[in-house]
Design goal:
The protein is an alpha+beta fold and 361 residues long. It contains nine helices and 17 strands. Helices cover 23% and strands 29% of the residues.
């Protein structure tokens, strides 16, 4: 079995070798600040499985790209999104994680909001006494659910989730839905790298033979089609897995997606995992990955479902290891720019052009 991944998709002529993004874009604080405004704010961010906010009063609090956010299901069953920021003096309302609450109460001074975000009480501040509670509700954000997952967007007037996903939704229809599977677990990692360092790596299979030996043996390297999808602006890997001992007559099918700036999706015929890459600053990112599985279908393919998160975590750790080494070199002052191979790195060519087109500094 060929352990390398041969890209069959391309976004530009093989005779043209584009220059990479300058190294300084991977560690400059001013660039990161500009990215938060021009790249991160309008994006949709996966924050967790829908089961975490299944019932009225259930809430999910987390931090993505520097924003502390809340998704909560109100008493009428509607899902609402807010910044986890009190209107008084910016105190936090909820601790991070999934929880159940009857109201959203500031943990600093006790201001109390109902689950629609309306201010209901503020110790020492009387409604109508020179101030209106109606004008002091929580800061709203967009929230939506797709394929059993909760997404938020900081731009309350921005594009809808389905518009942002584009052709991702059509690809997902080729595979079992999350709702037909069982939620397994999640893993969390922190990497000492710029988010673009990790993104460059997520866009290509060029490194698989060197960095992911076991993964390389599990896929048919000649049967991986990597290409850019303009509608939704993402990189897709159409993957053929090697036949298993349980079914040597049939190869498995899968699809991997990286959608900038911070969403990775991995579909297969019996399992699914989704990952959020959350930039913390110019030199650090947080990673969270969630796992779902159809245990019967996995076992029918000769796969022990209990091993799926472990093997996936190994791949994530391998990616983090090489990205941290690359990040160190990007900051060392030796490397400025390089050349990309449209044949071997069509996804990275697309992603870096996406950064150029959308970053406003």
């Amino acid at each position: 079995m060929n352990s390398s991944v041969r890209q069959t998709g391309s976004v530009t002529s093989k005779s043209n070798f584009p220059e990479t993004l300058p190294a300084e874009l991977y560690h400059c604080t001013d660039v990161f600040d500009a990215e938060r405004e021009s790249l991160f704010k309008s994006a949709w961010w996966l924050i967790g499985p829908e089961v975490d906010i299944a019932r009225p009063g259930s809430a999910l609090a987390t931090t993505v790209a520097g924003w502390s956010v809340i998704a909560v299901r109100d008493d009428q069953g509607d899902v609402r999104g807010f910044h986890n920021v009190c209107r008084h003096r910016a105190g936090p309302l909820l601790k991070e994680g999934a929880q159940v609450c009857r109201a959203l109460v500031c943990r600093y001074h006790g201001w109390r909001y109902d689950l629609t975000g309306a201010l209901r009480s503020a110790p020492g501040l009387t409604d109508g006494d020179g101030v209106s509670y109606a004008d002091m509700g929580l800061f709203p954000i967009q929230v939506d659910i797709w394929n059993g997952m909760v997404f938020v967007c900081m731009d309350d007037a921005g594009t809808t989730l389905l518009e942002w996903l584009g052709d991702v939704t059509a690809i997902a229809e080729r595979f079992p839905t999350v709702l037909s599977m069982t939620f397994q677990t999640d893993i969390m990692r922190t990497a000492r790298a710029n988010w673009k360092t990790y993104a460059d790596n997520s866009c290509e299979g060029y490194h698989v033979g060197m960095v992911h030996r076991d993964l390389g043996q599990a896929i048919d390297g000649d049967g991986v089609d990597i290409r850019a999808y303009p509608r939704g602006a993402f990189v897709g890997f159409d993957v053929t897995y090697a036949p298993t001992l349980a079914d040597p007559s049939r190869a498995g099918q899968g699809f991997w997606i990286y959608k900038p700036p911070g969403l990775l999706l991995h579909f297969s015929e019996f399992a699914f995992n989704a990952e959020t890459v959350s930039p913390v600053n110019a030199r650090r990112l947080d990673i969270k990955r969630w796992f779902w599985v159809d245990e019967a279908a996995a076992r029918a393919r000769g796969v022990n479902p209990e091993t799926i998160p472990t093997h996936s975590a190994e791949v994530v750790d391998e990616d983090i290891g090489i990205c941290e080494a690359v990040q160190q070199n990007l900051e060392a002052g030796v490397y400025s720019t390089g050349k990309l191979s449209p044949e071997n790195e069509p996804g990275t060519v697309f992603f870096q052009q996406w950064v150029r087109d959308n970053l406003r500094t």
